[in-house]
Amino acid sequence: MFTHPSWAPDRASSYERLEFLGDSVLELAVARALYDRFPEASDGRLTKIRAHVVSRHSCAGVARELDLGRLLIEHAKDVPEPELERIGHSHNVLAALLEAAIAAVYLVHGFEATAVAVVEAFDERIEFARTGTVDKKTELQEALARSGNQVQYEVIGVEGPSHDRRFVCIAVIAGEQVGMGSATTKKAAEQEAARQALESLQER
Fold first, then answer.
1. C-alpha distance across the termini of the chain, in Å
2. Structure pTM?
3. Confidence at residue 49, expressed as pLDDT on a 0 to 100 scale
4. Residue 182 to residue 163: CA distance in whole angstroms
5. CB atoms inside a 10 Å sphere around CB 80
């Protein structure tokens, strides 16, 4: 399970096959928990909560809590230290490891026991997604996670006097500007740029 594709004898010997299975087990476990826990929620609301809970960002966070990166590093052989550190702390690798671990548990213990463990591990994220407000920057990050793309925010201008500043920020994906925001704080300007970027992605 803790064999990265770069040091596996072949792709099928890495954690990728388990990752494929674990992704489906994770989604079903969370979907059933949401269906049972929030009987008044619409299908659209449940879909949005599930997307947040099972995102790569969320999975990587759970993987860090379980220290899966350390286990991956411990199982590596003849891998240069810089490469090992990069892989062991990679956001995408950690998310993949978690899904592989879920699949391994499922194959040994079955769905019911695995679902209980999954819901327990993701419980705080389920509650946050239900009651909290997921900001636009987080939503954009999650929307890009599956494709492997990342967004960068750049301040391209600061307008007005010191007591009434306005920051102008752009959101850049794969070298292309996809959103722009202007606000009295850098953080708020980034949020507006992220909102525009999300709208641009949806239109495509």
1. 37
2. 0.63
3. 86
4. 16
5. 9
